[in-house]
Amino acid sequence: MNTTDKMNALRRFKSVSSQEIKERKTQLLKELPPMDHILRGSLITRLVKCGKSTCRCSTGVGHASLYLSSFYHGKTQMNYVPAAWEQWVRSGLENYEVAQDILSELTELNLELLRRRDNE
Predict the structure, then answer these.
(1) What average pLDDT does the chain have?
(2) CA distances to 47, 81, 87, 103, 111 from 42, in Å
(3) Is 111 inside any structural domain?
(4) Does a structural domain hold residue 71?
(5) Number of structural domains, the chain?
């Protein structure tokens, strides 16, 4: 967090009571998505050629295939996503984004309570 962000956070909390901060924390915890359905990564459409000499893809655009690209343990992984699983994967990716946003806000609220020395 740079100096400008710190100043904005301080201005934002100046007129907010500790009780209001705690109530916001409670609200955010209720808004967390199901933690058993979280996926981190990106959906990528790849155009793949099947290899059949008589297929239309041999002379033109390949077949569109959906992949989940994710980075774990220092390596990028590409996992094929069947069409029937696309919505499930998109939902997991959205849950991850929502959870990440909520965790960021919870951290900011907890830091303000720390500054106020109010942990009850």
Answers:
(1) 88
(2) 16, 11, 13, 20, 31
(3) yes
(4) yes
(5) 1
